[in-house]
Amino acid sequence: MNIEYIRERVIIALANYCGATKGQLAAFEEHAPADTSSKKRKRLHFVVLDKSRVSADLDPVSCSETRSRVRPFPPIHEITFCSSSWRRALSALDEESCAWLRYCYGYDLDFAHQVSICKFIWQQFESKSRGSKITAKKRARLSSLVWLAVQHYATEGTGRIGKTYPAGELAKLTGVTKSNWSENYAAQWDELLWLCQDLDRSALRAISRKRSDARSKILTS
Fold it and tell me: What per-residue confidence (pLDDT) applies to 146?
């Protein structure tokens, strides 16, 4: 299974192409909505007011099309249509996988996605560190690093535009010295990054399987 290929497909599927076609206002700017330079002959129109028939002289108006193409734009962008199977597969994923893919590859900053990702990573971390002696103070500091680890891995591991955190800055944010960080926190930081990588790979594999299963059902039906 080619992870890079799946990653590219997900990025394309979650990209926003709504600006690829011109809207109605742009069309009116390029083409005048009305042209009265021709058809000057007058026609007699009648309007009924209070049961009385009143005549009114009105000029016929010649309106030009507000599109510059012989064929109109399709109602949905071609790339959006071709990648719809990936979006359907995305909606069938579990909460944390869907949130991860939307955040990393769709640049979706919905706070609910961030909460879902952090809760899942922290639960996985606590499960793996069960039995090890970690003080309450250190546990609180480690929990505050979860979102930083997500941002760091999303930038380095998935190519998402974001921020990375060197060891010196992490020590400062955690409130410890550099030596204390390297001795007591660096290993747990690497564990958080590994959990982010594992979520990334598992989410990409899951969306590929969901899409393949859906396509197989369509072909066999």
Answer: 97
Per-residue pLDDT band for 219 (boundaries 50, 70, 90) equals confident
Q: Which of 54-68, 93-107, 113-127, 159-173 has the lowest mean pLDDT?
A: 54-68
Is residue 75 situated within a structural domain?
no
70 falls within a domain:
no
Interval 50-71 mean pLDDT: 59
Q: Give the number of C-alpha atoms closer than 13 A to the C-alpha of residue 147, restricted to the C-beta side.
A: 11
Q: Is residue 45 part of a domain?
A: no
- DSSP per residue, 88-131: HHHHTS-HHHHHHHHHHHH----HHHHHHHHHHHHHHHHHHTTT
Question: Which residues is 62 bridged to in the sheet?
Answer: 35
User: Is 211 domain-assigned?
Assistant: yes
Q: How far is CA 149 from CA 153, 189, 192, 193, 219, in A?
A: 6, 7, 6, 6, 41
C-alpha–C-alpha distance, residues 170 and 112, integer Å: 25
Q: What share of the chain is helix, strand, coil (3-state, %, to 5)?
A: 60, 5, 30
Q: Tell me, what's the pLDDT at 58?
A: 59
Structural domain for 135, as ranges: 3-16+84-220
- Give Rg (Cα) of the chain: 29
d(CA 172, CA 148): 13
